[in-house]
From TrEMBL:
Keywords: Glycosyltransferase, Transferase. It comes from Subtercola boreus. One of its GO terms (biological process) is carbohydrate derivative biosynthetic process. Residues 199-352 form the Glycosyl transferase family domain. This is D-inositol 3-phosphate glycosyltransferase. It holds the Pfam family Glyco_transf_4. The keyword Kinase does not apply. The keyword Transferase applies. Residues 10-191 form the Glycosyltransferase subfamily 4-like N-terminal domain. One of its GO terms (molecular function) is glycosyltransferase activity.
Length: 409
């Protein structure tokens, strides 16, 4: 598995790659990950994720200082390093998560061998990187065009190309000229999250994600400032990023700094607790190819107010498990949030239950089973066949649980 960003990085692509790698290992596969080193130390060693040991090949990397943590592998050595690792591991499959550096190198190395199945998954949107390139606005359009041409070359080497949602698949096809891109959810293990149906004692809005421009967190903070005082709304922002100081200053300017709390990076346990304690989840981002944070919120039984942009409408259904608002419209977001926060508990619980129901189709095991079938030679997503596998595995798991359940005798 090749990734330009991997744990300990905190973003959707890194989290998906980690969960897929550990999930595959739990199912008996030998998994190797190629990723930039998280520090100056580089080499090959074992790392543990979700209780599974993964062999990780950490490439020598350098900080990209316009970004608050991003490191990149040496592009001038990526072909040599990829050849070396592919020769050493002799994989059946190469699955790259980014076309930028690591995916480019691994896809070229795999194609040289000729007998390796290649799968490419796109998590990239130009908005995720443009603000960190330091390019003037007049050059950015050309840079985006060059990025998509590079993506076409790398993804063109893959036997199958995937991305998390149908909207994202259409976006990738339009941007690159590729066709046949498959939509496969990043998936989530809903059992890791704890919904709370206790009567709420306050109104807490939660945002989780990188504190960067494309997330448009300023829209959410402005929305909080526009909400009636009697609601006593508190906003928790979990995540770090380059705009942290700017947004702290914005909350002071708007007079809501006593009600906007910046947690920075937190542990997994603290993150799950934040979801459980929240009343509503707010996602104002305009550049989500799926939004794992929104999925985690839904698995925690939270109603969601989200921008009607990119893939978020795939998760948020108006007046079912939350509401959509026009991107950038703080007043409309405030109105949608107020509508949820003024609901009687029973009606709010209906939204919470709807989130729990809608997230079921994004089961992580289903995602892993789908990729296993692609690894073994399938070129499409056969929903009926996957359902059969899931049903059989569910029966086997139930049987194991019954056998292992002690009896009083």
């Amino acid at each position: 598995m090749g990734a330009d960003t991997f744990s300990p990085n905190v973003n959707g692509s890194a989290r998906f790659s980690q969960r897929l790698a550990s999930g595959l290992a739990a199912r008996g596969h030998e998994v190797h990950v190629v990723a930039p080193a998280a520090s100056r130390k580089h080499g090959t060693w074992t790392e543990s994720y979700d209780g599974q040991d993964i062999t990780v090949h950490r490439l020598r990397s350098y900080r990209w200082y316009p970004h608050d943590w991003l490191r990149f592998a040496e592009p001038w050595f990526i072909n040599k390093n990829s050849d070396r690792i592919v020769e050493q591991v002799d994989p059946d499959v190469v699955h790259f998560q980014s076309h930028i550096i690591v995916g480019r190198g691994l896809s070229i190395a795999a194609r040289k061998r000729g007998n390796i199945r290649v799968i490419g998954t796109n998590h990239f949107m130009p908005e995720n990187l443009l603000e960190f390139t330091l390019l003037p606005k007049s050059w950015q359009e050309k840079a985006v065009g060059m990025a998509w041409k590079a993506a076409k070359r790398t993804f063109g080497r893959a036997d199958v190309v995937t991305t998390p949602t149908q909207k994202a698949a259409e976006f990738l096809e339009k941007s690159t000229g590729l066709d046949g891109v498959l939509a496969i959810s990043c998936g989530i293990d809903a059992d890791n999250y704890t919904p709370s149906f206790e009567k709420r004692t306050g109104n807490r809005i939660l945002f989780v994600g990188r504190v960067t421009g494309e997330k448009q967190i300023d829209v959410l903070i402005k929305a909080v400032s526009l909400m009636p005082a009697d609601l006593d709304v508190h906003l928790d922002i979990v995540g770090g990023g380059d705009l942290l100081k700017h947004l702290e200053n914005l909350s002071k300017t708007l007079g809501v700094d006593d009600r906007v709390h910046f947690s920075g990076y937190v542990t997994e346990e603290e993150l799950r607790e934040a979801y459980t304690k929240a009343t509503v989840f707010g996602m104002p981002s305009i550049a989500e190819l799926q939004s794992i944070a929104t999925m985690e919120a839904m698995a925690s039984g939270l109603p969601v107010v989200a921008a009607n942009a990119m893939a978020l409408p795939h998760l948020v259904k108006d007046d079912v498990n939350g509401f959509l608002f026009a991107p950038g419209d703080s007043q409309q977001m405030a109105d949608r949030l107020e509508r949820l926060l003024r609901l009687p508990q029973a009606e709010l619980d209906a939204f919470k239950n709807a989130s729990l129901k809608l997230i079921q189709k994004h089961d992580l095991v289903r995602t892993i089973v789908t990729f296993e079938r692609l690894y073994r030679g399938e070129n499409t997503v056969d929903v009926a066949a996957i359902d059969e596998v899931m049903a059989a595995e569910s029966l086997n798991t139930s049987a194991i649980r019954i056998i292992q359940t002690p009896t009083e005798n």
